[in-house]
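Lecture notes, unit on protein representations.

Consider one protein chain, 682 amino acids long.
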Amino acid sequence: MRTAFLLAAAAAVAAAQQSGRDLRLEKDTPPPAAVPAAPKIPRSYALVVGIANYRNLPEKLQLRYPERDAESVYSILISAEGGNFPAENVHRLVGPKATLANLRHELEDWLPSVARADDRVLIYFAGHGFVYEGKGYLAPYDFDAKNVAGTGYPMDQLGLVIGSKIRAKWKVLLTDSCHSGAITPEENAQLNRRLLDLNSSLFSLTASRDRERSFESPDWGGGHGIFTYYVVKGLEGSADENRDGIVTADELAEYTHRNVRDASGGQQNPTSERGSFDPNMLLAYVPSNAAAGEAPPPKDGTFIFEANMDGVEVFLDGKSAGVVDRGKPLRMPGLAPGTHTVKAVKMGYEPDGPRDEMVYPGQERTVTFRILIPRRRSKAALDLFDRALEAYNKGYEKNYKRAAELLAQALAADPTFSQAALYLARTQNALYDEESAARSFRRAIEIDPDYLEARASYAGMLLDIGDTDEAIRQLTAVVQRDRKHAMAQYLLAQAFRMKGEYAQSIDAARASIALEPRNAEAHFWLAESLRLSGKYGEARREYSEYLRLSDFDSKLAGKLNYYVVGFLVGLGKKKRAAQTDIWKDLRSLAYFGICDADRKLNDYDGAIASCRQSLNYAADDPFVHYALGLCYMHKAQDTGAVELLPAAEKHFRAMLALNGDLAEADYARKNIAAIEGLLQSQ
């Protein structure tokens, strides 16, 4: 149970514990109607905040699940079967990141700077909420109970920001806090109006009424706040009453209120005001619902999943519902009555399912999974796989082609050989056959849905072909299952660097480095995002660390598995037929990064040396020639060494010869003209 609110600044609050917690009618049905066209989804931005452990609060006031809640909300917002928000447009403040200063920056600076009149903006907060001297506050990570007004974020300020600073057609506020009902308190009509009557396009849904407590428990989906659990289930499609594929504000409000009230025995009642928002506001689009046809009866039911061993991942209607351990059931309330498809998987074993199970209205039903049969590989398939790996590990195009042949034969001999499907995908990707590689990656995941290495490697290829959003979705699924998956973390670092979300990239890279300090590529992507954030000294150190860790003989580079670095899409590079090419390109880019950082720090001699090193690995890189031209030109200006200008002109011309269509080309031409004019005058 989420704790009650503070009556005064220094008052202690005792934490409580949540102790617990018609069949479909047969009828004639008309032919199914055509699936409606996909709705137009506005440009969307979101801020997701979750704080479980507070820096300045006593142990009895710490929470358990807000950070898990925030990650679940983030996942459904960026899902193509959910919120449909671009990943780069969803900012997260989780745990120690959710300071008052950061909260203010995101709410008062970032969102007002990006949102426009036709956009959709969503703000989600999970953590503590307080009422002090008649005013409501959200508690950031550094909240101090001795200074509520100075360290809490005032809800009236939140109302002011949403109402007058953030411009958007649709505005959504979701708060799951210990006393988030303070946003709509029954005894404070002024504060109620301040938030709920800002304009007709604000949808404010809060976890509870005034004086009520907001519960959290492991009984909901393995551990969530009850409010957030049903919000996420609703956005996944359960709230879509008419099965048109669209979850509206009205549908989410009704679904969440009904289920939270029932699940808490009436102790918690989410609040919204029907007149304060557009009831048809689109909160999620779930195409699979639009194809499903008839809406289910309204009374929901519950599955309780149990398994005979630890680490069993359960899939409900094709989506991961969570992980079940032996003796620790997974409770999934809020399910539409009728038939649902369930499946349990564990790597290395035959799955239990898929099979159909019935949800009965208003009833709980236990579904038991038995993972019993280890997968056994035929000797022929294993021999083919071993021979394929031998060829694969030699690198280079001809060996990849041989490996692909052998892996295809291994899969023919054993169609459930997920490792063979994964390595076939990697091999096809190295041979530029991206369409076949995508099929093979998906096949590996279909065989073993909990094959995290396959998901992470698939994400690496998605980064290569520019599908960054789907890559982030795959990687998010990996790190939610295993936060210590270093490869997924550094691929997230790359993905967010490509999206221009440098703060999230830096966080992911550092998480990867903490897990595997010798992962060279994690240092590379950390350096990239540091440099592009203007932190040139730190970036230089990380580039140098990458170069140190990857400093092996170039003859060995072809044996290294560089398939997961995303192949530098968006960086002016795309070479994959031999892995050596990728190693060379990364080293070229690292030296270029040092060059650029030194140039920004006005160390032109160091910059020139690093750019020359970069050209040793990639002599035809126009960006490096352009940077060298700038270095020589600026050094000439600073020192008066006019004799450096011909070198600057040479590199500007080399850049234009390699690619005269770059955005910097006009500057190169102007610099050439200026240099020629100066040299002629002398």
